[in-house]
Amino acid sequence: MSLLPSANLLTSIKKLNLKIDNIHYQLSPEKLQDITVDNGMGKEASSGALAVNTGEFTGRSPKDRFIVKDEITKDKVWWGDINIPFDSEKFDALYDKVIAYLNNKELYIRDAYACADADYRLNIRVINEYPWSNMFAYNMFLRPTEEELEDFDPEWTVVNAPGFMADPKEDGTRQHNFAILNFGRKIALIGGTGYTGEIKKGIFSALNFILPVYKNTLPMHCSANVGGSGDTAIFFGLSGTGKTTLSTDPDRKLIGDDEHGWTPDNTVFNFEGGCYAKVIDLSKEKEPEIYGAIKKGAILENVVMDNNGDVDFTNTSITQNTRVSYPIHHIDNIQLPSIGKNVKNIFFLTADAFGVLPPISKLTPAQAAYHFISGYTAKVAGTEAGVVEPQPSFSACFGAPFMPLHPAKYAEMLSKKMKESGVDVWLVNTGWTGGPYGVGTRMELKYTRAMISAALNGELGLYNYGKYHIHSVFGVAQPRECPGVPTKVLSPRATWNNDEAYYKTAIKLTNAFRENFKKFEEHAGEEIRRGGPQRYAF
After folding, report:
1. Strands, sheet with 156-161, edge to edge from the N-terminal-most edge strand
2. Residue among 152, 90, 94 at smallest CA distance from 126
3. Second label for 402, Cα 20 to 30 Å away, from 26, 197, 238, 496?
């Protein structure tokens, strides 16, 4: 689809101080791909997908994410290292500089929206310097019909200028790149970085403020799917824990893979119209749905291809964070519209590189609140400079970099919803077994899938001593048996074959949990504090 700009669009573009003689509006993804390739900004893979290199930044830059501190945000945002305040006047001056820069470029403009539930819809206008960035916006946001575009009125605007470099001393940024949210002007201003994830996460961060503050709706960094009986499952998890992989299930319809809202009437809706999946070590055998989605219309980021356009998904010479974006309809088994009801199961996914957490365990409400606030996963050697052994990594609510409010606010909303809906909550370790990273092995995907299927199908039995063992260090209930999974795999201690080493490592991790939780203790009640690990250091 390629449309001529309407009079309303041209008027609103002028209000942004943009020139109207250099814009391309609502170009089709095919046209955007052609422009990208013709201009030497990307190549076509053998699958038909577009392959691009995002340049200096191959991931988000959390220290360069800011929120304008104004009358709307000053008393509501949880200010600190995650939500860094930005001066309103500095924003206005920087915005004018970015617009002046863009007025000398050809621009690609797209109208789209977020939130599949019409009651929560957020209209968005995306202004891109690069054609492939605009193609990403087509993939990731929801796509209006031609009729909806006729009187389209954007509420938020994303201004994306990867080639613009800020002057930190003059502009108030930390370095030349930046991603700034301005709730007063309803603008997400992004510059100095070609990483497309900043576009989607900018709107996600805005919704993480708008929905709880104004709509009494819980925003979640999670994937979700729905079963044949209409039951919805939610999968929380940080990058690399399997959120996209495990929710993309041939036996269940995918609602979405990353960003959702949970309404007061127990409905879960997708914020997005596409998926943004990691492709490191991707294979057709292990993840056929995602592998099959990589075709014409998909965008591969920072992958390595041979002269024939064949991708080596094991090659991380550019980055560990190789990715693909594609519209959700590239997956065959999807829920339309992207809405689910009747939430029955919640899974907290963690890639425990210490290899001490059970592969699956059932959580009490207090434990669920504790682990949600903690948001634990682990970094492994080689993923970041200076990381030579496993390191615990905590991200509150499994998405702290995108959460403008205090984590306790989201945890309170989740706890309330869990109690009202009577959901079962599970902690799933998709990380290591038989020892820590470097000694043990990564949990086999087929076993994790079997455990999640058993939980969804009610095959793990009632919460009692006959069916579950209470872990002596973490206090969680691990099932004694699971269809399709060897009994030994269910007990992390048994897989180590060295009890002393196992318990020393387990208690080392519990101390990291406690140290991290100190900053939340004053906002967490006694019940939630008791949901943490049961054992202290020797």
Report:
1. 23-25, 107-114, 122-128, 156-161, 187-191, 178-182, 65-68, 84-86
2. 152
3. 26
pLDDT recorded at residue 470: 93
471 catalytic? Reply is no
> Which position has the token pair 């805005």?
206
Polymer length in residues for the chain: 538
Q: 330 near 293, Cβ under 8 Å?
A: yes
Residue with tokens 């193609």: 135
Structure confidence at residue 197 (pLDDT): 96
CA distances (Å), origin 390, targets 210, 322, 360, 378, 438: 36, 21, 20, 7, 9
Is residue 330 annotated as part of the catalytic site, yes or no?
no
For the stretch 159-207, pLDDT in tens is 999 999 999 999 999 999 999 999 999 999 999 999 999 999 999 999 9
In the predicted structure, residue 4 carries a pLDDT above the cut 90:
no
| CA atoms lying within 13 Å on the CB side of residue 467 | 12
Say whether 95 sits in a helix, a strand or coil.
Answer: helix
Catalytic-labelled residue, pool 221, 362, 409, 449: 221
60 catalytically annotated: yes
In the DSSP assignment, the letter for residue 474 is T
Taking the C-alpha atoms of residue 16 and residue 23, their distance in angstroms, rounded to an integer, is: 13
| 387 pLDDT tier (thresholds 50, 70, 90) | very low
Q: Is 201 a catalytic residue?
A: yes
Query: Given the DSSP bridges, would you call strands 218-226 and 156-161 parallel, antiparallel or unpaired?
Result: unpaired
